[in-house]
Amino acid sequence: MAKKILVTGGTGFIGSRLVNRLATGENEVRVLVRRTSDLTSLEECLDRITLVYGDVTSAESLEGLFTGVDEVYHSAGLTYMGNRVNPMLDKINVQGARNVLVESRKAGVKRVVHVSSITAVGIGSARKPLDESSPWNFDRLNLEYARTKHVAEKIVAEEVSKGLDCVIVVPAFVFGAGDVNFNAGRIIKDVYNRKMPFYPLGGVCIIDVEIVVDATIAAMQKGRTGERYIIGGDNVSFRELSQTIMKITGVHQSSLPLPLWAAHIISYLLNFSKNRNKISKLFNMSMFAVASEFLYFDSAKAKRELGMRYEPYEQSIRRTFEWYRDRNMLD
After folding, report:
1. pLDDT tens for residues 156-189?
2. Could you give the maximum distance between any two Cα atoms of the chain, in Å?
3. Does 9 reside within a domain?
4. Among 7, 14, 155, 320, which is most exposed with the fewest C-beta within 10 angstroms?
5. Residue 198: beta bridge partners?
6. How confident is the model at residue 225 (pLDDT cuts 50, 70, 90)?
7. Number of domains into which the chain is organized
8. Bridge partners, residue 72, by sequence
9. Cβ 7 vs Cβ 32: under 8 Å
10. For position 281, what pLDDT does the model report?
């Protein structure tokens, strides 16, 4: 029997790939969008989905939209790692999550999958990747994005205690075709354009967006209520990552390790430089502080319980680069 599925954040990177996948089946797929939403990422499947209009930040706009819905994928979120105060982080990531989860519970939605972030898990080390049971410690970096994703998971726990069937998936650093806003893909573009003369001393856990989609759907089908699942792959230092990107793109640049204390000095000096545009936009102190840590994670639980597959991270980097190159998006 066909199910009614509603997806929030369906125009985003992960959300759009999820919608495109769900729309290949027999289920009725609804996508929550604003009147002003850019639907470019959904062009391939617009004839197979139903658009419903609302805003996760407005509980009133969501009333009635979840009635009769069997499954909800909540992937709406604002990813902002900059230095400025951004009030939309709380509105979208915290209040938006609360609005969607409360409406889902009230409407009797059978199951919700909440898409979180590895910043809601914590900061590990090169020697000891974190898992789902690790205590949250990202507050030491004072990153508002991390705080809002952590609070959103607490809201999930509150709603589960009230009877909502909800599972959390936690994607790592996501590469892949379709990253039109250059989220993780920004580093590929900037290495290609020789805008990365130095690299931070930390590392990240890399995963392809299609594996994230597979695991997210699997979480809906067989994840355990109230549990979180880290969706990650290879743990890679930024030195290794930049070298891999240079190898795949065929573009080489001398790149030096940069400790955080030195980054502060360079960041200050760049304020007086005419060459600021020659340095990656990733070089802001908030983001560089995060990149100086080891966001290494253990995804054994997702492999064991969700059947998450593995592929070497180089394959995802190559696919992403070729997708950008074929669309002339790297200049």
Report:
1. 999 999 999 999 999 999 999 989 888 899 999 9
2. 63
3. yes
4. 155
5. 256
6. very high
7. 1
8. 6, 112
9. yes
10. 66
Element holding 242 (H helix, E strand): helix 238-249
Tens digits of residue pLDDT in 289-299: 999 999 999 99
Asked if residue 16 belongs to a domain, the reply is: yes
User: What is the C-alpha separation between 65 and 103, in angstroms, rounded?
Assistant: 9
Q: Report d(CA 284, CA 20) in Å as an integer.
A: 33
Confidence of residue 272 (pLDDT cuts 50, 70, 90): confident
Q: pTM, whole model, 2 decimals?
A: 0.94
In a domain, 43, yes or no: yes
Give the structural domain span for 46: 4-181+205-234
Judge whether 205 and 234 are in contact, CB under 8 Å.
yes
Residue 221, SS3? Answer: helix
The domain that holds 62 is classified in CATH as: 3.40.50.720
In-domain check, residue 245: no
289 Cβ contact partners less than 8 Å away, ≥ 6 residues apart: 141, 143, 260
Question: What average pLDDT does range 202-210 have in this prediction?
Answer: 97
Contacts 24+ apart (CB under 8 A), 184-189: 184/320, 185/320, 185/324, 186/280, 186/281, 186/282, 187/241, 187/242, 187/245, 187/280, 187/282, 188/245, 188/249, 188/317, 188/320, 188/321, 188/324, 188/330, 189/324, 189/329, 189/330
DSSP state of 91: I
Residue with tokens 């995804």: 299
